[in-house]
Design a protein that fits this description.
The chain is mostly beta strands and 185 residues long. 2% of the residues lie in helices and 30% in strands.
Length: 185
Amino acid sequence: MNVSPVYLGRWRAKVLASRTFSLLAACCAFCWPAPSDAAWKLIWSDEFGGPVGSSPDPSKWTYDVGNNGGWGNNELETYTALPENSHMDGDGHLVIHVESGSAGYFSARLKSQGLFAVQYGRVEARIKLPAGQGLWPAFWMLGSNIDTVGWPQCGEIDIMERWGIYFTQVTPTGCGRRLSRRRHT
């Protein structure tokens, strides 16, 4: 299964490959071991080294925009590609910011779909999680064939999710054939 990398929030992360997924967003790096070598080989990364207020690298990241009927989770926010919702802080971090106003809630949903996919390996991410009721930060991977087979048939690996009301729980989960949901603290 090929997957399109990850979605992230206010965090820094590194990713080193795992299945064929596309990243949906963080300071990331992907790697895999060479066939004759036990050492990992870095094959993709983003250290979010841009200047303050700059947007993520468009050769590595794209956006899901709009509300899409709540994205299957009854989400209230509308996702944008605006720099006030996702930008670099100048210290090697991607900041994903939620704005609220009379028109509703606005944030960003970044992904590497169509820009990077990998099969097998290791994914690493360093993520600072926000806390607060109603927030749902996540770092996850979807099958790169999502546009042809849909979800959940494409497969999904949730590297990390935190539901806003469960401040002490971080949950890795998976969806698709023979994968189950488990909660960890």
